[in-house]
Amino acid sequence: MVLQHTVDTSLADHYPxxxxxxxxxxxxxxxxxxxxxxxxxxxxxxxxxxxxLEDLLSPAEVAEFSAEIARLANDPALAEDDRVIRExxxxxVRSVFEVHKLSAAVADLVRQTRISxxxxxxxGSEVYLHQTRINYMPGFRxxxxxxxxxxxxxxxxxxxxxxxxxxxxxxxxxxxxxNGSLMVMPGSHRTFVPCQGSTPPEHYRESLQxxxxxxxxxxxxxxxxxxxxxxQFTGRAGSALLFDSNIMHGSSNNITPFPRSNIFLVFNxxxxxxxxxxxxxxxxxxxxxxxxxxPV
Length: 296
Description:
This protein is α+β, with helices and mostly antiparallel strands. The protein contains eight helices and 13 strands. The protein has helices at 45-48, 59-73, 99-102, 104-110, 113-123, 150-158, 204-207, 218-228; strands at 26-27, 50-53, 84-86, 93-97, 127-137, 145-148, 165-171, 183-184, 191-192, 231-232, 240-244, 249-251, 260-269. It has a seven-stranded antiparallel sheet. The longest helix has 15 residues, at 59-73. The termini are close together. Its EC number is 1.14.11.55.
């Protein structure tokens, strides 16, 4: 059964963004933890906005999925597929979206309780896949992702009502401090940072390569960093980071010889399904923002 219902669009927008005039930061009006935390690794999720899950994949599974993502990046049948995002400068594959529909191995993985269970625990409900993708950051010339809150984009461009969603980033390579590993600001998930400017039609075609609209200002970043500090997700392949949709995060370029890649899964609560975009002229494609709300 496929569920494709939407939330009442008359509900008040508690997170206005993409405005003509700058708006002040807003303290979060929704919980971070909606359920009952019983897993030790998730104990500080409400405070920090993230949790590290060590050894989520075994070395054998890391090898299996590394081969699988290499296959997808080099599949000639996907060369012109819109789900494959390439770097502007090098034309290298940056991301492959809707990977759970392109890979039977990933489809099997996301159905496992060890993968979706932490999301259910934090969100206090059944969950569905809002977005899935593989991120590639090759050595020497891998481009990073500028500081941003995922929820700001998902709210503005996809119509996600509240930040009742989490992302699970599963490392397929070792994450070192020097190879562009993800940085987060612990506790920043409790502050929503509105962004200035309007969303152009089909903005996703540009933003998936390099986002320039829907990003905080340097003063926003400086203020949050001074208040919360910055933590870096490092560790061996197979570990994972579960983080709140509104946490401020980003990654620097990778100029080392050590590539970095990950499977990226976004779980949204079935009680937080998408409405029409709050600050964009139209919906993004469903391979970026699913509107099939069937629970995992």
